[in-house]
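Below is how a single chain appears once it has passed through the pipeline. First comes the sequence as given, then the structure the pipeline wrote out for it. We keep one example in the README because the format questions we get most often are answered faster by looking than by reading.
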Amino acid sequence: MIDVLYSSKLLKSVLFNPLAEFHQWRLLRFVRGAASSTAAGQRVIDVGAGELKYKPHFAHCQYVSSDLCIGDGDWSYAGIDIVSSAYDIPVESGSFDAVLCIQVLEHLDAPDRAFEEFHRVLKPGGYAYLSAPLLFGEHQQPHDFFRFTRYGLVSLGKRHGLKVLSIEPHGGCFIAIETTFWAAFWEIMPFRRQTLGRYLIYALLYPIKITTGLMALTLDMLDRKKSMTINYDVIYQKAA
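Resulting structure:
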């Protein structure tokens, strides 16, 4: 099912827009930005690549996926290139121009070790594109360990030779409230993800979801601090 979603422009426009699914929309925008900043032919490693949903955006690159393949029992990890932990990827040092690590850091029980590995596999001057949650419910249990403030993400980079070029929140408190409300709603629903019953309910509630999303986006303009956010996108760079 995930392949259908990510190969259909119509479905992506319906599901991954700022009103219906702000968080997923922001993640996709961040990944697209990372892909457009990566030159053709450069080597990219997607750490914790899962079902390879971001691979199509790096078709112009030499894309390599790695994953320990234990996170979500419903996923297919058949396309993973390198089965390994994020702490010990079996590649030579300085092998990649960019590291992509999207919504993975919270699932690592030793994030410092992962940052050490990011630094090792990157070429001098290479970039790491990472996203991680601040306000998010437990998921992929029991492989869920941490949440991250912007200061924690900056500190992780500094400790391991990665300079923060930018760090951006996924909205502020009103988007966080709206996102949490819908997350709680789906938590109590009896239907599992990627099942017909769940898709039917989603379709029926879609107009309401669009309405609450619009309200959250509008009210979120009042929140200047954006310190109560659901997620952060971070761009790091290794010294040249």
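The CA atoms of residues 87 and 110 lie 8 Å apart.

See the next section for the split statistics.
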